[in-house]
């Protein structure tokens, strides 16, 4: 086994959002003598090369298929999606970037369900603002959540139907906050709503490569690609370093601090393989649950300047959350037509995204064949109670439009592409694997970052929050 010659200050596993935002803050605060090793299991492939090969995943031509090789899904009716490679799933994400609502952090206190987060919206607000600046987010002047400064980019344009809903639901319907650019700036073009965001042809959405790639050129950073971490070296209550394989060779590297940013499938399984027996580890595998609502209309629906135009909060927060899940409505503006002469654009499409409560029996664990096993039995009754009344809710919500017909379907993907809840945060080891800073309750020099740390699953997309939490985690090293 080869040993990397230096003792590193920090070893970071993965190069996605969590790792890169941790790295950003660390480099801003660390001394010139600091040494960071970043180990990334996939390759680094530029946007231009990806386009040439139509290659989304750094290691495979198809993001979902490529990643599927890495896990053993025990429930084929439920899919999960991510990509590997430098930049993680920033290469294939769709860049919807809402903040959570304040109540998302305190579901138990407010509504008597789920578990409160050990931090509040106010704790995270300054970090949200910073990530929105790095993402160069386009968003509306008014938002459903408290926000002190305007978004860096102007909002995307609304469609005819969005403008009608905005007028009917003041304070509840807004242009979507998104890291798909409204105006061309820096390395990014303006979004032109062609809706193939998994590999944006004009580089309009934020990726780690186009927005944070320079971090990895810092002389304090050593980035090793095609280097797969296989275990964390846990001794007593301390993480001493990691074991990794590269080009068939087994290696070990040592550090003062270890940071796992390998996502909610691999963070917990790496820890299990390393001997961590925290009771919640691997449990609570979760994501939101969605339905597609297509509304045939008596009016033409045109306009908009991006693929997901607007966000509706009409079914989100309120006393109903004592009994059933919150729902975020996304207005979809990809290419869809009504197949009736003269009525091709007399239609609107929405995605209704429901929160879930993590269930202990849904879990990930290492497979005997070296992959990760996913045992997912289904969403919570809390979510089901909201789904049971979807027809009534959508008829009421969209009844303000000139509706001719309305259909509710399952989304074809069988996944929201968000992997959450497998190393949740809590105030104590009895409540969670990590604390409010993503620091492991037992191994105090080990950070476990990403959506695995979410104790409840807001209907809002997770990555802005994952990134804000990672900035806050890195600051912990400097108090
Ligand atoms: C198609 C799609 C669309 C999405 N759209 C949105 C959206 O619009 N809005 C939103 O908020 N979220 C979206 N997401 C989710 C978002 O991409 C994730 O929340 C986010 O990428 C998680 O960031 P992360 O850094 O925790 O993990 P990842 O981005 O998954 O990064 C993990 C990194 O770790 C590396 N790695 C894994 N295991 C190892 C190992 N053993 N050794 C070394 N390296 C390792 C991986 O290669 C990768 O680089 C989408 C996801 C997909 C797949
Ligand atoms: S809608 Fe098109 S231009 Fe906009 S981010 Fe997606 S792929 Fe890029």
How does this model look, in words?
The chain has 479 residues and is α/β, with parallel strands linked by helices. The protein has a single domain (2-478), classed as FAD/NAD(P)-binding domain. Helix content is 20%, strand content 21%. The chain contains 11 helices and 16 strands. The strands form 3 sheets. Strands 1, 2, 5, 6, 7, 8 and 16 form a 7-stranded mixed sheet that branches. A 6-stranded antiparallel sheet has the order 4-10-11-12-9-15. Strand 13 and strand 14 (372-375) form a beta hairpin. Helix 1 packs parallel to helix 11. The chain starts with a strand and ends with a helix. The mean pLDDT is 95. It binds flavin-adenine dinucleotide (FAD) and iron/sulfur cluster. Flavin-adenine dinucleotide binds at residues 13-19, 39-42, 81-82, 84-85, 88-89, 92-96, 198, 228-229, 261-263, 266, 417-418, 450-451, 461-463, 466.
